[in-house]
Amino acid sequence: MSFISRITPSTNQIHLIVVSVVSISLTAGIILGGQEVRRRTRVKAVKDSIPEISESHLSERLTEYGAAADLAAPSKEDERNAVLALRARQGDYDDELILEQLARNRVFLTDEGLQKLRSAFIIIVGCGGVGSHAAAALARSGISKIRLIDFDQVTLSSLNRHAVATLTDVGTPKVHAIRRRLEAVTPWVHFDCRNELFGAHVADAQLAPLDGQAPDYVVDAIDNIDSKVDLLAYCDANGIKVISSMGAGAKSDPTRIVIGDIAASTDDPLSKSTRVKLRKRGIKSGIPVVFSTERPGPGKAQLLPLAEDEFAKGNVGELGVLSNFRVRIMPVLGTMPAIFGMAVANHVMLEISGYPHEYVAAKSRDKMYDGLLGALLGQEERLARATGGDTVGLKLSLTADDAGYVADEMYRGRSAVSGLSTRLVLTRWRKPEPGFFDDSIPGQKLVKLSTSDLVCMTKEEAAQHMKLVLQGDKTPEEVYDQKVCDLVQRRIDEDASLEKYR
Hints:
The protein is an alpha/beta fold. The protein has four domains: 2-49; 69-297 and 334-353, Rossmann fold (3-Layer(aba) Sandwich); 301-331, no CATH class; 366-501, no CATH class. It has 18 helices and twelve strands. The strands form three sheets. Strands 3-2-1-4-5-7-6 form a seven-stranded mixed beta sheet, sandwiched between helices. A three-stranded mixed beta sheet has the order 8-11-10, covered by helices on one side. It has a two-stranded antiparallel sheet with strand order 9-12. Helix 7 (129-141) packs parallel to helix 13 (335-353). It starts with a helix and ends with a helix.
């Protein structure tokens, strides 16, 4: 009992505890209450400082687009165009006038080809520089149903590359800016505007049929990689024809723009990231893309990083329009998105109308990749024999695609040592540890090798590397200068950062 009495609070102690708790609660309530009163007072003061809209004030109420009415309110011409467009879509428009407006396309594509265009339904995802030019070209060429999907609004910086937006469209959703301007050109076109962000979770609804008609083609003009990959993967899985525009930013040479399979697209960071993520989903080819083969160089525009003072402010992710969207500045020459958009529209028109077209195809490099892999296997066999190992049944964990990735993506088709692009082979960068292959399975020896272990060299350089490093007692740092070692390390680091996507 004495123990219990010692650990049990007395009546006075209980009273003191209760009084303390109540006092703390009252104090906190007073402080929080005072803060709330001050907050409401400040809010009321701000609201009271805003003058009412009157003749003495030129302020305007916001429109449905969230812009000032004097900027986004439709003009008399816009209202007339909207009425004309509604009547035209309802059939109150002379078809002979439409055919006259499309006369040049008609004689080029024939009546049959033009009719296919006029009956088509196209979805354009992304209505910035590329998407707006594609939309304008497709509408002017006879496409009768166009769905526009984009969450963004026209900004002042949009005007250097947007096909139809004007100053009065600033603050207006891009989809409605395009619709409003193109209704003045092609009033018979049915624009289905979706002021929405494309996402995998809403793809079924956003790419759904229009008036019972499934999309004949989807145009991918998205500049966010995750959304782009989601769109392309959805179209691939559902058998929807799609063409994708790769990056037009920091490009300036229109003669380097080509149309080809995504597997052949190179020299473009957006394309590379898209390919890697699609490969993770089992998609290696089969998607036509517009891309530029122009390579970066001294004096050319590059992706601009955020200033150091922006990083010092805190979480840079909060600077983006949406979560996971890039916050760096992309230098864009206004003409390049236009050319990309026109190339996309041209492809769609030829495909739908059935007009014969054959692009200059990129050379198949499958044989070269097989050769790289075979030469690498031969090297590993020589290393195994040099250590007294049995090479019967020796196999590589890498594939020909992996070999191509190292040669073309990691090392840009050039030797890391000399920069030459001929007689290339792959070789280990560092000497392998003893027991570098797994022989736990009878009759099979699997070489423990990853893409980050490899480097691209000429045959002559690889032979010297084998002698001095792989079979000798030197390290790469003792054989090569700092510039070569730094280059290889950068490529290894880049590969490691992309490993999660493969």
